[in-house]
Structure formats: C-alpha cells, structure tokens
Design brief:
Elements: E1 4-8, H1 13-25, E2 28-33, E3 50-54, E4 70-73, H2 80-85, H3 87-107, E5 112-118, H4 141-154, E6 162-168, E7 170-172, H5 184-195, E8 197-200, E9 207-212, H6 213-225, H7 229-232, E10 235-239, E11 245-247, H8 248-256, E12 263-266, H9 281-287, H10 295-307, H11 320-337
Parallel strand pairs: 1-2, 1-4, 2-3, 4-5, 5-6, 6-10, 7-9, 8-12
Antiparallel strand pairs: 9-11
Length: 344
C-alpha cells in the first residue's frame, strides 16, 4: 500500500533528489519548501503523485498534514557559514520550525516522523569513532540548532508517534536540480576541474565523515519503510560508513587521483574548528544499512557532469551562503527603490 509522505526542504540539495527517489517507489509526496533556489521540481510536475507546496515550516497550516503517513523533515538553513549569517533566523527555522512540524504532525495523527540531523553536532570531537551516545561538542549555530531540535522532537515520541533522528555525515555527490558547491568533495572537485588547484586549510588533519547523497536518501527511505517501530522509535542513527572517515589531506589526495595535473596548496590556518571521526556501526547492525557509493564515485560523477555541461558551476545558487547574501542584498535594494510598494 502506498504511503503519503510530507517532505519538508523538498527544494534543497538532498530534498530535490529525494522527491524523485520517493516517486520511483510509487509513494505520494507533498513537497514543501520556500523554493528560494527556484522551481527545481518543474520537470516532475506532471507526476500525479507529486504535490508541490510553496510554504514555510514556521507558518504552514496544519491541515496540510491531514492523512499524511510519514513526515521527513529536511528543512533547515543548511550549513555552518549560512547559519551564522542570521543566527536568530537559524534558530527559528532549524530548531523552532522543526519542533513545530513535529508537534503538528503528532497532533494530526501522523504515525512516523524522521528528522534530518547532522554529524556536525559532534563538533570538535573529544574522541575517535564517535557514536550516538558520545558527548556532543557543537562549534556552530547550525549544530546547536540541530541538537536542540533533535532533543525536543525525540521527546515527543510515544507508541503512536514513531520518531527517528538521522545524523548525516558530510554529504557529497551530484544533485542536478539543486547542486551545492560548498561541500568538501563537491567544491574540491569543482576547483580541481576549473582551476587545477585546490586548497587544504589548517594542515588538513581535520577529520570528516563522508557519505554520498544517494546513500543518505537510502537511509531515509529505509526508515520510511521500516515496519518495526520498536527498532527506530526515539532512536538516533549516524548515517555513513566507517571506511569513509577521512582527514582533509586524504580527501585532497583522492581528488588528485582524478586530476593528474592538480596542485594542492596546504595552508596552516582554518576558521572551521570542526573535526570528528564517526562510528556507523549502529545503523548497520539495527537496520542492515550499508552504503553503495564511494568518494571516487562522487568525484567521477561531478567531473563528468561538469565536462558535459550538465552543471552550471557559476550559478549563484550553488553556494548556499553566497546565494542567501545575494537575496538579502537584493531585498534591501528593492526596499530602497520601491515607491508605495511598487518597483515601476
């Protein structure tokens, strides 16, 4: 029997690809997003199982949740630099907005809620092989907001409301509807392809767990389809694989394997204080989850897309922080030049 799924953040890097993957299963999707990055789902509009909802998790009418079976909540200000741009807005969306969605879902009789969290919550990791019970050491507003939301949402769980939090490793790979070139593998691949040079900050000793976008989606859909809620209710799962924990200098060397004439510039300073080596045994043992893609796969598919012109690397929308700044500056300019609320 098909399910009705509300997917928030459906216009994002992960969300826009997840919509397509859910539709392939035959389930119905309510794709809710502000769609700041444009009409990214336009090629899917003819699918009768897709309903596009342009709205905001902070304000939408709870009736949208009527007869919904599962909520997958991806909506957020999606990385550390963008989250620091307007911290109050980050807290409103990433924390308060997420909790609001969960509370309304529970009120409206939704049976399952899946929250998209992040391994960034481990921040400056205090130990190696951090697991779901390890201390959290957030170093950014983004991570703090995810931790606060995760705690409140998990506390809403009961026998009738199954809640799961998935802490994603740093994501990489091709998402043609809303590509991001502000993630470590993606941006290094772009710089290698475009400039034949990449920069490794802070000496490159920082740890990053990595996971392909398709493997993130695979984890979410496994939880969507899991019938035994005892396994997943009020549980946290790190999403990734133990063999894709890399130090940044190692990532640079993997990139170099794909670009023989690449120059690697190592610098001692790095404003990003995160370093975390993460353990992914729990999701494997409880759900039987294993990744299908490697970092090499991600680099190859992005390089191919750039070679073929599938990706427009100079599009402002491929940098989350840069695009938000552009929108804010454009909004300020329009406010200044409008007369009686009109531009012309």
């Amino acid at each position: 029997m098909s399910k009705k799924i509300l997917l928030t953040g459906a216009g994002g890097y992960i969300g826009s690809r997840m919509v397509e993957k859910i539709l392939e299963t035959g389930d119905r999707v309510l794709a809710l997003d502000r769609y700041f990055f444009g009409d990214v789902l336009k090629d899917l509009k003819n699918n009768s199982n897709l309903t596009i909802i342009k709205n905001d998790t902070r304000f939408f009418d709870k009736q949208i949740l009527k007869d919904v079976d599962v909520v997958v909540d991806l909506a957020s200000i999606s990385n550390d630099p963008a989250a620091e741009l307007v911290p109050t807005l980050t807290r409103e969306i990433n924390h308060e907005g997420a909790v609001r969605v969960a509370r309304l879902a529970k009120e409206m009789g939704v049976k399952k809620f899946i929250f998209s969290s992040s391994c960034s919550t481990y921040g400056h990791g205090k130990e190696d092989k951090l697991n779901e019970l390890s201390d959290l050491a957030p170093v950014s507003e983004y991570a703090k907001s995810k931790i606060a939301a995760e705690k409140e949402i998990l506390d809403l769980s009961n026998d009738d409301f199954c809640v799961t939090s998935l802490r994603n490793a740093t994501v990489y790979g091709l998402s043609r509807r809303r590509m991001r070139f502000d993630l470590i593998i993606n941006i290094m691949t772009l710089h290698a392809w475009k400039n034949k040079k990449i920069f490794v900050l802070g000496g490159g000793k920082q740890w990053r767990p990595l996971v392909h976008i398709d493997d993130v989606i695979k984890a979410f859909l496994m939880v969507v389809d899991e019938n035994d809620c005892i396994k997943i209710n009020k549980e946290i799962f790190n999403v990734g694989s133990n063999d894709q924990n890399y130090q940044v200098f190692q990532v640079a060397q993997i990139i170099k394997n794909h670009f023989s004439d690449l120059e690697i510039d190592v610098t001692p300073d790095d404003p990003d204080a995160r370093t975390y080596n993460v353990n992914f045994d729990k999701i494997n043992s409880v759900l039987g989850y294993q990744v299908d893609k490697t970092v090499d796969d991600g680099i190859s598919e992005i390089k191919k897309a750039l070679d073929n012109g599938v990706l427009q690397y100079d599009d402002k929308r491929t940098s989350t922080l840069g695009y938000y700044k552009f929108l804010m500056e454009a909004d300020e300019t329009l406010r200044e030049v409008k007369l009686n609320g009109k531009l012309f």
